[in-house]
């Protein structure tokens, strides 16, 4: 409420403009009239037939501003009653938030629910007109496009080859750090992931060139920051972030295209992801789409879970010790050659990394459970249906907040506690209901990058723990109390809530080398 008695900003604006520019009176009337009609239409379309469905707060016309700015908090009321649906609008599109086991099974398993259409609308503001939607050509075709392209990159022999380069990348960056000092995990560990993701999914012309890597990193963050409320909800010309996002997308597209075109033109063959994609007969357009999708689907989740894994470990020293023992024994079994610790780790077979690190696996699952903040999205491409009491018409959108399972006390007792012991056979939440662990997706859309992302996290954790002793400190150099927790509303990095934390580290290869001798 303001001094003139109104809490509506457009009325204030109207009063102000009429006082200053009386000749604009009729224009202002038209503008306000249009605004009121739009408000009426937004409310009318969103409420129709939804009895017992919670309406989440939103700004008239624009819709759910806080879905973009504070997503986890915004969706919290939707989780109060499992099985009840809620809804909100993104401009004129209706989004139904579903919860509970029955809706979860449909959300992840229904053949007419399209993932790409969901994300394109909600995060990029694009949408296909309902009359042009075809469940077979959309939901069906989109299903396996990325998985098909990534398949040559996640074969054992490709991963084995790329692991040498990945460890060399890790070594080079870690070598550039001082012998002892302070790291900011949400920056420094995150940057490692950026390099590794480019190494594994693009061309060596990119991943070998630090200036190109940092150029792509700048474009990537411009595009990511352009996912804010103003860019999606305001008309295109009103948001500078939206503009920057569009420009960055075009520049990224042409940068990647230039690299591919030059490779094709030169006829040169290289041992990298681009070569695999070309040898598989993919078109330049498909490879560009794949490369950009891999960056956006891969970097944020892998980046933040890689650094949170290390934070959780030092905040839970008994697990850090267990993991150190597991990694030492692992290196003792496989990495006994000569050379640096990273070259020995690189020689270890991929299958051993995947099958013989159960403590690491449990720590990764627990880190994902506590940090994952993405909200899976879908669009109903088929007939109208009802989920959790909400009418979901053809063309409507759906969201499923993963906290509905990951932070439910009934599946994960004391849900905010880091406890990798939960994944032992006797305590598995998976036995209590369908799809209670969604760290790597489920149903028709499991994460096709999971294999690579898990290896990346393991490589970083193992090498970091072998090369450095580290402890978590706050800005004053003290152990943070309470232990840090991620701000999951921070959609890009999930930085610690409240005070910043650092790793105080010193270089050491002694622990790992001792075990091997
Ligand atoms: C720690 C890292 C990662 C986590 C936690 C993660 C998690 C997930 C989850 C939960 C989904 C399902 C989303 C949904 O149902 O809407 C998903 C899908 C997907 N992920 Fe990942 N992911 C990670 C890394 C990666 C990487 C590195 C890539 C690519 C190189 C990737 C590519 C994808 C793609 C393309 C999809 C969509 C699949 C489809 O359309 O069916 N992810 N991921």
TrEMBL record:
Transmembrane segments: 26-42
Database matches in SUPFAM superfamilies: Cytochrome P450
UniProt: heme binding residues: 447
Needed co-factor(s): heme
CDD domains: cytochrome_P450
UniProt superkingdom: Eukaryota
Pfam families documented for this protein: p450
Region (Disordered): 477-497
Record protein name field: Cytochrome P450
Source taxonomy: Eukaryota, Fungi, Dikarya, Basidiomycota, Agaricomycotina
């Amino acid at each position: 409420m303001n001094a003139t008695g109104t809490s509506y900003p457009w009325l204030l604006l109207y009063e102000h403009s009429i006082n200053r520019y009386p000749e604009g009176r009729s224009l202002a009337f038209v503008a306000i009239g249009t605004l009121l009609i739009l408000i009426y239409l937004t409310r009318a379309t969103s409420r129709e037939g939804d009895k017992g469905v919670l309406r989440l707060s939103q700004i008239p016309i624009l819709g759910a501003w806080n879905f973009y700015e504070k997503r986890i908090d915004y969706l919290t009321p939707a989780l109060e009653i499992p099985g009840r649906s809620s809804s909100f609008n993104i401009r004129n599109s209706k989004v139904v938030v579903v919860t509970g086991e029955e809706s979860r099974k449909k959300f992840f398993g229904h053949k007419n629910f399209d993932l790409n259409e969901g994300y394109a609308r909600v995060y990029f503001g694009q949408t296909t007109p309902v009359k042009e939607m075809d469940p077979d050509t959309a939901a069906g075709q989109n299903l396996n496009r990325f998985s098909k392209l990534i398949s040559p990159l996640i074969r054992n022999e490709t991963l084995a080859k790329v692991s040498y380069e990945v460890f060399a990348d890790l070594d080079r960056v870690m070598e550039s750090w001082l012998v002892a000092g302070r790291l900011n995990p949400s920056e420094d560990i995150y940057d490692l992931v950026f390099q590794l993701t480019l190494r594994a999914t693009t061309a060596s012309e990119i991943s070998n060139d630090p200036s190109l890597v940092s150029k792509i990193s700048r474009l990537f963050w411009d595009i990511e920051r352009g996912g804010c409320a103003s860019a999606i909800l305001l008309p295109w010309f009103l948001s500078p972030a939206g503009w920057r996002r569009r420009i960055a997308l075009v520049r990224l597209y042409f940068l990647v295209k230039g690299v591919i075109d030059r490779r094709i033109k030169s006829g040169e063959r290289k041992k990298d992801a681009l070569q695999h994609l070309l040898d598989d007969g993919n078109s330049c357009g498909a490879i560009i789409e794949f490369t950009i999708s891999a960056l956006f689907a891969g970097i944020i989740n892998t980046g933040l879970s890689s650094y949170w894994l290390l934070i959780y470990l030092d905040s839970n020293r008994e697990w850090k010790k267990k993991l150190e023992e597991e990694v030492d024994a692992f290196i003792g079994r496989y990495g006994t050659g000569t050379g640096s610790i990273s070259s020995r780790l690189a020689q270890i077979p991929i299958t051993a990394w995947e099958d013989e690190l159960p403590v690491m696996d449990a720590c990764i699952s627990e880190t994902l459970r506590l940090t994952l903040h993405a909200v899976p999205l879908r669009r109903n491409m088929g007939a109208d249906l009802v989920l959790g009491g909400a009418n979901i018409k053809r063309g409507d959108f759906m969201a499923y907040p993963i906290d509905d399972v990951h932070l439910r006390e009934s599946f994960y007792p004391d849900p905010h506690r880091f406890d990798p012991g939960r994944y032992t056979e006797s305590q598995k939440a998976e036995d209590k209901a369908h799809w209670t662990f969604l760290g790597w997706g489920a149903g028709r859309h499991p994460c096709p990058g999971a294999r690579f992302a898990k290896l990346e996290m393991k490589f970083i954790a193992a090498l970091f723990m072998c090369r450095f002793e580290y402890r978590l400190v706050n800005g004053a150099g003290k152990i943070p109390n309470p232990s840090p927790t991620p701000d999951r509303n921070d959609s890009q990095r999930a930085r610690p809530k409240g005070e910043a934390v650092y790793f105080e580290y010193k270089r050491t290869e002694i622990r790992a080398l001792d075990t091997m001798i």
